[in-house]
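Design a sequence for this backbone.
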């Protein structure tokens, strides 16, 4: 008989909680879904796109008292996740946290990113970082899984193949420019994110240092042994709802004298991502360049519309021969691969479900 589990979603009324409901409703191994909300609004009013689903909100205390819950997704702010994680873990329930509460290896790095002390240091140190593709073993054996930051995960997919190369210079500052849809800001009402202020507009934020930069630096060290990486992460909201559009520049080593080209980089990346664990959701754009030097061949780079609504990360590459700079262009849906989809990948791994179950969708454009 097919194994089925029951899931709780704390913060079921928010963007990532709603996306989890949408995806889990189609997941073969899910018996019951219990999303929580403290608001008076019904599930149907909050997530009108899922009105046919018969899901109802419950409050968090009711979820805590429920007996047969196998996994709880925390779609809450870090400060709330820290409190809830302990409660569910004590009940021997697997916790997959979508906030930044448990992403760092230690409290020193947490402090650097958040500017405050972590109140549950032991929990922080015992968590597994939920980059499914890179941290399989730890996720499998841990009950507290910290889903990665959306920019951080996109950057790690984009940089990982270069960490194995002899030519990418990780000693130099790595420049990342990334644009996120407005859903990246969560559902809490902000004047600046209203239609009037966002349409035909761009909003830069966290120029003095985005908290995902130290997360990328820490994971480059722990997964790929890159010491002292320095990430200059520049972020903005664009006038679209979902999706991350990321552009990375990384210099090549001065003493590397073999020829680097776009074709060569594509080959390196495809090689890196050819293994079974890595190739479910990561795709390298290998279309041939057309036209002369200045022709704008948009198709050779990934576009947001290729991945919105999917759990995929699409990666494109190029090389500025004059400046000796590698360019990586990557896109993913912040609410799926950057949040709910990765969380489901971790659940699939943890409960021995098919790795792509619930996530097997293709781009619509
Ligand atoms: N949005 C993204 O693209 C994205 C991507 C990756 C990670 N994340 C992270 O995922 C988490 C959720 O993000 P989101 O965008 O889904 O946020 P959101 O849309 O603002 O939703 C937050 C949810 O938290 C609930 N909540 C607030 N206070 C609570 C409390 N004291 N107890 C229980 N529930 C409470 C709210 O529900 P009620 O008020 O109805 O109870 C709401 O459903 C955040 O930590 C965020 O940083 C977000």
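Sequence:
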């Amino acid at each position: 008989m097919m194994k089925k589990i029951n899931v709780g979603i704390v913060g079921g009324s928010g963007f990532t909680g709603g996306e989890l409901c949408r995806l889990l409703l189609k997941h073969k191994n899910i018996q019951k879904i219990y999303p929580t909300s403290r608001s008076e609004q019904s599930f149907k009013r909050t997530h009108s796109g899922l009105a046919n689903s018969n899901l109802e909100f419950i409050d968090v205390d009711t979820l805590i008292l429920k007996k047969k819950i196998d996994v709880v997704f925390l779609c809450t702010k870090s400060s709330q996740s820290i409190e809830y994680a302990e409660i569910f873990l004590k009940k021997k329930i697997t916790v997959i946290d979508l906030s930044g509460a448990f992403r760092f290896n230690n409290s020193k790095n947490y402090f650097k990113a958040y500017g405050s002390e972590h109140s549950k240091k032991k929990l922080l140190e015992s968590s597994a970082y939920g980059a499914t593709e890179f941290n399989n073993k730890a996720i499998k054996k841990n009950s507290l899984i910290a889903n990665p930051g959306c920019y951080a995960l996109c950057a790690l997919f984009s940089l990982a193949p270069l960490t194995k190369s002899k030519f990418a210079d990780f000693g130099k500052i790595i420049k990342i420019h990334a644009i996120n849809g407005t859903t990246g800001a969560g559902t809490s009402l902000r004047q600046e994110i209203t239609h009037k202020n966002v349409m035909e507009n761009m909003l830069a934020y966290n120029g003095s240092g985005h908290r995902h930069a130290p997360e990328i630096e820490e994971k480059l060290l722990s997964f790929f042994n890159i010491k002292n990486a320095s990430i200059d992460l520049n972020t903005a909201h664009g006038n679209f709802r979902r999706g991350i559009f990321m552009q990375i520049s990384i210099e090549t080593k001065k003493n590397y004298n073999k020829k680097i080209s776009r074709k060569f980089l594509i080959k390196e990346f495809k090689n890196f991502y050819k293994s079974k664990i890595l190739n479910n959701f990561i795709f390298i754009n290998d279309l041939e360049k057309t036209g002369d030097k200045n022709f704008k061949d948009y198709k050779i780079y990934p576009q947001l519309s290729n991945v919105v609504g999917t759990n995929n990360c699409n990666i494109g590459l190029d090389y500025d021969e004059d400046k000796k700079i590698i360019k990586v262009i990557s896109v993913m849906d912040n609410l799926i691969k950057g949040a709910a989809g990765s969380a489901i990948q971790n659940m699939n791994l943890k409960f021995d479900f098919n790795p792509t179950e619930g996530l097997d969708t293709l781009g619509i454009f």
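The pocket of NAP is lined by residues 10-11, 13-17, 37-39, 60, 75-78, 80, 98-99, 150, 183-184, 186-188, 334-335, 338-339 (CB under 6 Å).
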